[in-house]
Amino acid sequence: MSAYVEFQHVRKIYHTGEVEIVALQDVNFEIEKGEFCVIVGASGAGKTTILNILGGMDTLTSGSAKLDGTEISFLNKKQLTAYRRYDVGFVFQFYNLVQNLTALENVELAAQICRNPLNAAEVLEQVGLKDRMKNFPAQLSGGEQQRVAIARALAKNPKLLLCDEPTGALDYNTGKAVLKLLQDTCRNTGMTVVVITHNQALAAMADRIITVRNGMVEDMRLNEHIVDVADIEW
Amino acid sequence: MIKMKMLQKTTFREIRGTFGRFFAILAIIALGVGFFTGVRITTPAMVHAVNTFLQGKQFYDYRLVSTLGWEEEDVEAFQQQEDVRYAEGANTADVLFLDEEENEIVLKVHSLPENINQIQLEEGRMPENAQECLIDAAYTELSIGDKISISEMNEEDTTESFKEKNFTIVGTAYTSYYLNYERGTTSIGTGNIDGYLYVLEESFDLEYYSEIFIRFNQDEEIYSEAYKEYMNQKLNFWENLTQEQAEKRYTRLVNDAETELQDGKEELSDKRKDGEKELADAKQELDDAEKELADGQTELDDAQKQLTDAKTELDDGEKELSDAKQELDDAEQELNDAKTELDNGNIELENARQQLEDSEQQLTEAKAQLDSGWEEWNTSQQQLQAGQQQLQVGQNQLDTAKQQLTQTKTELNAQEILLNQKQAEFAQQSEQLLAMWEYLPEEQKQAYQAGKAELESAQTQLETAKAQVSDGMQEIQAQQAELDQKKQELEAGLTALAEGKAKLEAGQAEYEAGLQQYEEGKEAYESALIEYNAGKKAYQDGLQEFEDGKKSYEEGLQEYQEGKQEYEDGLKDYQDGLAEYEDGEKKYQDGKKEYQDGLQEFEEKISDAEQEISDAEKEISEIEKPDTYVLDRETNIGYACFESDSEIVEQVAKVFPIFFILVAALVCMTTMSRMVEEQRTQIGTLKALGYSEISIMGKFTFYSGSAAVIGCILGYAVGTALFPQVIWMSYQLMYMPMNVEYLFDGKLALLSLGAALLCSVGTTWISCRYELAETSASLMRPKAPKAGKRVIFEYFPFFWNRLKFLHKVSIRNIFRYKGRFFMMVIGIGGCTALLLTGFGLKDSVAGFADVQYGEIQVADAEASLKSGMGTELPENLKTLLSEQTEEYIPLHQSSWDLVTKEKVKSMTVMMPFGEMNHYMNFRTPDGEELAFPEVNEAIISNSISERFGVNIGDEITLRNEDMQEMHVNVTGIFENHVYYYIFIQPETVKAQLNETPEYNTIYMNFPENADIYQNSAEIAKNEKITLVTLFQDSAKRLDKMMESLNYIVLLVIVCAAGLAFIVLYNLTNINITERIREIATIKVLGFFRKETSAYVLRENVTLTAIGIIAGLILGIFLHRFVMSQIIVDMVSFKVRILPMSFLYSIALTFLFNFMVNLFMEVKLEKINMAESLKSVD
Fold this sequence. Notes:
The complex is a heterodimer. Chain A is of the alpha/beta class. Chain A has a single domain (about 5-230), classed as Rossmann fold (3-Layer(aba) Sandwich), CATH 3.40.50. Chain A is about 30% helix and about 30% strand. Chain A has six helices and ten strands; from the N terminus they run βββαββαβαααβαβββ. Chain A has helices spanning about 45-55, 75-85, 105-110, 120-125, 140-155, 170-190, and strands at about 5-15, 20-30, 35-40, 60-65, 70, 90, 160-165, 190-195, 210-215, 215-220. In chain A, the strands form two sheets. Chain A has a six-stranded mixed beta sheet. Chain A has a four-stranded antiparallel beta sheet with strand order 2-1-4-5, covered by helices on one side. Chain B is α+β, with helices and mostly antiparallel strands. Chain B has five domains: about 1-55 and about 630-780, no CATH class; about 55-245, no CATH class; about 250-615, no CATH class; about 805-850 and about 1030-1175, no CATH class; about 865-1025, no CATH class. Chain B contains 23 helices and 20 strands. Chain B has a six-stranded mixed β-barrel with strand order 3-4-9-6-8-7. Chains A and B meet through α2 and α3 of A and α13 and α21 of B.
């Protein structure tokens, strides 16, 4: 029985004109179901590329990437879209809410295209925005917007929740709250959560820590001392 | 300077990077400018083209007409005026021609001009003699090489004004004098002029000009104010001048006539004197001749008498001579006969003598022969007797010998039998002996042998004897035969002897007879000889006598011939004299005749001359003082029509461009404000770096300004080149072919450039101003996205809750940006409105012919009758019509002028003789049935009502060619699209003018299923029918003419498409760039391709739908407006838009939308999802 998420010898090369840029040289890691995983690395280390591949937004050059036993490395465009649609939930650094839709509608936007969506209102309630459902994004604070974003991702009932620097645009406390929400979600619903960040400090709260450098996995380890979000300082 | 360079660099990069946006501004400016300048330049370009043409052909300024006509002297007088460039006399006449098939054609004949109103030869060559002509190039029924002749039906004046009656067409031409298709009306034929004809001046047989054309020394543009002003100054002076000149001509005419009359009178009296003298001389001469002739006659009679006497004498002489001749001939004949007889007698005598001598000789010879015969006979007798005795002795000897032999023979036979017995015995013994031969003794054997030999010798002896007997026998027989022969010979000799004796006796008798005959002959001969000698003597006497007679005859003949010669000479003399006399008499008769003719002629001439003089006197007294008219260019139909026709485009030009300018401004505004928004950070940065606001603004200004300038140049070039050509093409159906040259209008170019810059730079400046007002710091902060907002629909839960979630999103988005919404609605609406107008234009223009001939003028055909028909059709035509048509109705159709306060316009007045219901439907434009008017009432076409402001209840004045006026009350206005029709009762004319209109037209309906071409051809064969027109053909022809409108419709469609594309593209483009993160996010969320594009483009479709609805409403009004501006003479269009056109307009707009969407989908596809990860910038 292989792992829930599995990268084997993943290599990614970008071609820009005549220049070849090796984004990932040889990436190998695995993540177990229900784990809270943090992928950490400096800018340009290749963590965004890993996110793109894992999120079905980009293809890889060689190697193998699997989610729940499904090989995603060589899916075509349409299959990739379906993969994103049904299997992955995304949380962006800048929330990426549709400005023209209310909080609830933003969640519904994602929910309505899924097979087994969760109730949008309930999910919003879960993330603590019961009272702000009818508000437009412009009327919400950053943290609240990120919660809506998380709710939008969760409502899809995905196999994997991918978060790209979820706290990058938030202040310290709000960031913490968001992280707490993610951790709780993982704990309470058994959702596999992958957080991508450059912030080493966040690694402390993860079940599994994957460190990326120069397009290679420098280190992958299980965290033996899981720290609660509230106790993390950065 | 360096900073400017860097700024320029970013600007160029910006243009390259956002070329779609740059191009959108460029294109909308180009489209707007193109349409605006194109439509604007069309009228000036057309006027310019016509101006060039007219100036080139020296189009006239004044046409001077006098009721007395003009002379060369008048032309020269006008030419003397300082401001006159050309003055030229011309002749013209409306003439009914017949072509080679005897069809009537009404042509306006002009004399070929020299300088003014020059013609433009299209094909063929110029006429070179009085029998050649040029035909109207627009009149296609006749072509080069055809021959036409002036019809007998013309009035005498017309026929007489031409030297030639037959013309050959040698070329086709257009002329500045007839710019458009109208050729005017006339009082002859059908009333409609079919075309013009140009002939040489010398083809006319006139001493005067019917009009003089004046061209001033000016080249002002046609229709221009300057020209109008110039002409205004001339008018009074020229009116006076013309009148003066005409009066001069009048005085000249009267004086000349009087002088001429006086001269004529004098000449007459001189002539009369001369004539009388001449006649008297002739009379004298004739009398002398008569006397001479009488003398001659007497002389001749005498001569004749003498000759007759001589003739009688001669005849007697001749008779006598011929009798003598006869006698002589008879005598000669007789003599000859006698001579012959004598000669014959002589020969006979000689023969007789010869014969006698021969007979004597023969007789002598016969005597001798007889004597020898007797001697011979006696010898023969003795010989025979001796022979007879000898023979008897021989016979006896023979008989004895024979007896002996027979005896011997018998003996022999007995011996033989004995021998035979002995032989048989011996044979028996020998057999026995032979059997016992060996046993026999030798003697016996010898015995036998001796016996045997004895026997054998006996045998031999016997046989020898036998043979001797037989020989003897034979000898006897031979001697017997010899003896028999001799006996026979002897008998023959005896017979011959007897015969010889008989012969001899006969010869003796013959001889004696001959002797007797000889004696008789000798006697006869001698008597004949005597007779002969007597005849000979008589003959010689007769011969002598004959020769004497002959001599005297010859003398008589000589005498006669001399007399005859004399007579013939006399006769010849007489005949010569007679001939001479007859010639003299002939001459005399001729002279007499001549004299009488001369006398008569003299009397006639004198009386004619007297008549002429009195006519001339009368004529002079009747010459009226002249009326003159100074007619300017405005009275030329082509010139006047073109001015109003060309203004149509100008009218349209005022409306259309507003759209394009508006849309262009909106497009620039949205585009630039979006651009400025996008570049907020950059503006802030530049500002922070210390760039001035002006230089920052310069970047955007350059961006939009350069797009505007390029677009403006492009649009101006294409628009001004294309529009006049396309629109002129559609004008070609009414005007003569002419080329429209490219016309550059600097003012228009500047104006359009100004408008373009105002649209682009102006809007840019407004957009920039907002942003630049902010501080650098706030500029560098991302601008808060425009907040989401509830739209009004959300307050209607019933509606809102039923919407699909994504539709709600679209609706919110649509109403989020008001500017874009309006830009879209105006752009798309404009597109749809343009399309609808274009299609509607086609429906209205193309369809009017079908409506006219399918619903209003429902008769199948119209036949024109020859003039002079009266009000009764000939029987054969009636029969023909009842055979070939289902029904028919005779009408009178003629041109009358409708006289209103403002203008005079030619109308077609129809007077049916009967019920018109089956041939024409009279309905108001609203579809109500109209009753046919009563006497003194009229119903009129709606176009007359609309164009000349005539309404029900008005009294209108109609004027015919003879200036007679009729007044009728308008009781109805009916829908009619072709021609200005006025229907009245024929009785109205009778009541008001006391004239009965004659039949000149027949309307007819053919039976169903009939071959109408066949039937109409049959009818056209009738000699009273000049032409049969099928209305179906007219409809087709009109439709075909209107096909040129397709170009305009196409032009409109292309512009509309351009508008739609640019607006849709630009908006969608802005929308996408603005929402790129949102779209990327949606893609990350797992929206499929179609869902993504639907999410974005649904808004486009919705906006397009709204735009279409607005466009359809707008289009209906636009169409009405355009139609109201298009006025074509005699035609009123059916203002309508067919349902199909609505469908086409909607479908085409959606099609454009669909095409832009397809394009945009590709663009959406290219959006990278990584965009979603970027921060807001």
